[in-house]
């Protein structure tokens, strides 16, 4: 038998080994930021456009990234630009880009990018689609006169779907950028009188999406069957005025779910973590599980909420028949989707919090699986086409235990 002192030393060693193993096991289950890349705000795209808009912004300026999606092929992604500089005050041709993003945690840098192609969005007659809000004066435009592209998803059979904030609308688009179809959207998402001036638009409408708060996020389930769009904020009729200009307050944003096989649709209610937050993106894990990018409208030291939540819709009530949701609470028996904290972008361990914290986290997509089995998650930042602000991409490694967590 070992002497008492040796037995105690051995026991202490075993405790340390177990503690070390436990700590490393817990660490392995954490989401890790494995890299980031910044593209200068002066970057030009491959559209071939010449000249400037507003006498300042090159027509081939790369930026304003509102969405990102992995094509499932190699390292190829699609990055979608929104309506252009100056919030739709100028005529900017809408577009999306094909970009190669190589992710290798064992290299330095871990993330590299290369712009491959730029596709200008056009209607079926070959006319360029503009992001100018001024085109909204008068009756709703035909397919498609103007667009504020905010979400993009690529189907397993290579169809593209783009969500538009102006409508709101969801369009089917070819790989080369031709808008070839439009999904049927329930009337209570639409406004009756669109207007280029947001304040006037707000005063002229009593239902539908709030100004510049339409279908900000778009998801396609992995089987390619369901499209899920989410409004950036509660609809006009689902909210109440705050007394500050056109600002409104409501607890629930609506998710619109379209079955591409049957054409049937339903809606779910998403409870905002804070009513002053907005929704930037939604990403499907399964037909009933999603990740949602929810954030405040502040950057730098003022930022206090930048997060990805986990959504379980398996028990959510279809609220399609409820034309007006209460701005607080839901009717008895009506269940919203379940929302849990999932990824806090302000977590100190990621080193993003502080003066350089981006304001507009806008895009969210899964990327390839790493050799160790973890899934990559790419988060894109919108720079609003400001040439002194970079477009940034952040890549996280996600343990499999952090996905498919419904029922836990």
UniProtKB/TrEMBL annotation:
Residues 1-28 form the signal peptide. Transmembrane segments: none annotated. Keywords: Signal. It holds the Pfam family Phytase-like. InterPro entries: Phytase-like_dom. The keyword Electron transport does not apply. Residues 62-385 form the Phytase-like domain. It comes from the Bacteria. This is Phytase-like domain-containing protein.
């Amino acid at each position: 038998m070992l002497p008492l002192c040796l037995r105690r030393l051995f026991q202490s060693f075993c405790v340390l080994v177990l503690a070390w193993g436990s700590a490393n096991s817990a660490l392995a289950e954490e989401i890790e930021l494995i890299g980031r890349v910044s593209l200068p705000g002066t970057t030009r795209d491959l559209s071939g456009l010449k000249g400037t808009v507003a006498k300042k912004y090159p027509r081939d300026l790369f930026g304003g990234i509102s969405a990102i999606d992995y094509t499932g092929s190699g390292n190829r992604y699609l990055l979608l630009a929104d309506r252009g500089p100056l919030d739709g005050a100028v005529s900017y041709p809408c577009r999306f880009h094909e970009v190669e993003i190589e992710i290798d945690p064992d290299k330095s840098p871990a993330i590299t990018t290369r712009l491959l192609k730029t596709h200008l969005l056009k209607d079926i007659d070959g006319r360029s689609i503009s992001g100018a809000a001024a085109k909204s004066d008068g009756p709703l435009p035909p397919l498609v006169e103007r667009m504020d592209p905010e979400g993009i998803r690529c189907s397993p059979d290579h169809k593209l779907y783009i969500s538009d904030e102006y409508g709101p609308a969801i369009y089917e688009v070819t790989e080369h950028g031709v808008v070839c179809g439009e999904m049927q959207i329930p009337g209570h998402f639409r406004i009756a009188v669109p207007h280029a001036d947001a304040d006037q638009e707000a005063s002229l409408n009593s239902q539908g999406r709030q100004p510049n708060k339409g279908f900000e996020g778009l998801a396609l389930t992995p089987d390619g069957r369901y499209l899920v769009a989410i409004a950036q904020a509660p609809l006009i009729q689902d909210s109440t005025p705050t007394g500050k200009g056109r600002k409104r307050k409501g607890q629930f944003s609506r998710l619109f779910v379209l079955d591409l096989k049957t054409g049937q649709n339903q809606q779910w209610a998403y409870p905002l973590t804070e009513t002053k937050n907005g929704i930037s993106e939604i990403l499907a894990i399964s037909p009933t599980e999603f990740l949602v990018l929810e954030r405040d409208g502040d950057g730098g030291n003022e930022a206090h909420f930048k997060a990805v939540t986990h959504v379980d819709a398996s028990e959510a009530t279809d609220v399609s028949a409820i034309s007006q949701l209460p701005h607080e609470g839901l009717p008895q028996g009506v269940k919203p989707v379940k929302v849990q904290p999932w990824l806090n972008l302000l977590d100190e361990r990621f080193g993003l919090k502080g003066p350089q914290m981006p304001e507009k986290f806008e895009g969210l997509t899964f990327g390839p699986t790493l050799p160790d089995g973890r899934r990559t998650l790419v988060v894109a930042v919108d720079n609003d086409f400001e040439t002194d602000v970079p477009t940034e991409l952040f890549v996280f490694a996600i343990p499999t235990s952090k996905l498919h967590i419904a029922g836990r």
